């Protein structure tokens, strides 16, 4: 028997209140930050648990495994279950996981806690993006997704600042204890203010729901192209951020000082959030070209970091502006298709992101170890150029659909 057709979505509200859009952004930012708190803390974790720096990399690996499992197994549930109840359950498990990391005394407990933080932090973050897309009116979807995604980008950048500063003041355990309290404080506003949306899928069952992701990937050309662009863009992004800590720590900078460079990227991330509005108005192609050009241009000042920290600041601004603008445009285009499958589309798109992030982190640190900072910048520029060429070759085969403002 074939499953009964999925009922159409109820008509989305004409305009989400500004406070609700801001709540989506805040919740998305705080959720994703949990996944990245560990990055500036690896040397402290290695010391406390008596392990080598090579082994402590397993902390990040465990978190990334959790992220991948969330995209495959948890994020698609938003297309089947009522989103607000699902989000509430995930938030409570995330609070417990953060508390478990803060209290961990043995390495296996720490790794299990980090895997769970990656699992639930990613499920909440991407679930909130899909939630925002489904709650928004179609003509405002790019703007709302852009606002939520700007929260993700800012949360990702400020996670390093928060983690480094709190660790310098009170130790790494205080980072995760504070994170648990922040997420717990967010629970009531989310439950009260976010709109209740009915489940978008009564059938198929869970196994078929997850299995349908492969069919979606085969059918959606826009998803394939934008996913590959995301893979290359986030590879370039992580080539930079994973390698940056090495020369700066060698120069004697503290965790707080290194994390503070994330503040520079906030300005670029917030400016790039407007890309969602431009996509709504039919300018996604132009926005993509400009974003990719900025991503490539950023590597010129970044290559001058050893001569001037101001060049580093300019490079971070350009890198984050281009990256955020492209990411928001990508998601706006991917989410124009199949409103009943927003969670699965987000999960598939973010699997490209996860692959690019992991590859970029490995390649960036390896390039620095073998040939120094200039090799890192050459690698990043090469990956950025490849993304620009990919967009150029596919711009006619997979054009951005025209949209009009409301």
TrEMBL record:
Assigned keywords, A-Z: Membrane, Transmembrane, Transmembrane helix
Keyword Transmembrane: yes
Domain Major facilitator superfamily (MFS) profile: start-end pairs: 20-399
Keyword Membrane on entry: yes
SUPFAM superfamilies with a match to the protein in the record: MFS general substrate transporter (SSF103473)
CDD domains tied to this protein: MFS_NepI_like
Transmembrane segments: 20-39, 51-74, 86-104, 110-132, 144-162, 174-191, 228-246, 252-271, 283-302, 308-326, 346-367, 373-392
Protein name (database record): MFS transporter
Organism (species): Comamonas endophytica
């Amino acid at each position: 028997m074939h499953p009964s057709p999925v009922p159409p979505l109820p008509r989305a509200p004409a305009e989400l209140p500004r406070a609700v859009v801001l709540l989506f952004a805040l919740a998305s930012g705080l959720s994703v930050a949990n996944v990245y708190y560990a990055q500036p803390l690896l040397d402290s974790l290695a010391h406390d648990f008596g392990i080598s720096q090579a082994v402590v990399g397993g902390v990040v690996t465990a978190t990334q495994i959790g992220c991948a499992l969330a995209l495959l197994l948890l994020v698609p549930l938003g297309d089947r279950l009522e989103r607000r109840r699902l989000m509430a359950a995930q938030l409570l498990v995330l609070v417990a996981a953060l508390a478990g990391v803060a209290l961990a005394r043995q390495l296996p407990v720490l790794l299990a806690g980090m895997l769970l933080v990656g699992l639930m932090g990613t499920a909440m973050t991407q679930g909130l993006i899909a939630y925002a897309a489904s709650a928004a009116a179609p003509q405002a979807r790019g703007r709302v997704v852009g606002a939520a995604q700007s929260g993700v980008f800012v949360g990702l950048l400020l996670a390093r600042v928060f983690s480094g500063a709190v660790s310098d003041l009170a130790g790494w355990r205080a980072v995760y204890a504070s994170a648990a309290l922040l997420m717990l404080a967010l629970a009531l506003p989310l439950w009260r203010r976010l709109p209740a949306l009915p489940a978008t899928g009564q059938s198929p069952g869970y196994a078929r729901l997850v299995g349908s992701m492969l069919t979606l990937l085969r059918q959606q050309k826009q998803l394939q192209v934008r996913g590959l662009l995301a893979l290359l863009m986030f590879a370039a992004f992580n080539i930079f951020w994973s390698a940056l800590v090495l020369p700066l720590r060698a120069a004697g900078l503290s965790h707080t000082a290194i994390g503070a460079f994330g503040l520079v990227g906030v300005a670029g991330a917030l400016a790039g959030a407007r890309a969602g509005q431009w996509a709504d108005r039919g300018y996604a192609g132009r926005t993509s070209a400009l974003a990719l050009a900025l991503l490539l241009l950023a590597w010129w000042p970044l290559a001058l970091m050893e001569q001037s920290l101001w060049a580093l600041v300019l490079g971070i601004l350009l890198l984050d502006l281009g990256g955020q603008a492209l990411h928001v445009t990508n998601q706006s285009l991917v989410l124009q298709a199949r409103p009943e499958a927003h969670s699965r589309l987000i999960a598939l798109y973010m699997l490209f992101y996860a692959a690019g992030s992991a590859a970029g982190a490995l390649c960036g640190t390896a390039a620095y170890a073998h040939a120094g900072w200039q090799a890192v910048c050459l690698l990043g520029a090469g990956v950025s150029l490849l993304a620009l060429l990919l967009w150029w070759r596919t711009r006619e085969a997979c054009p951005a659909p025209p949209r009009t403002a409301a």
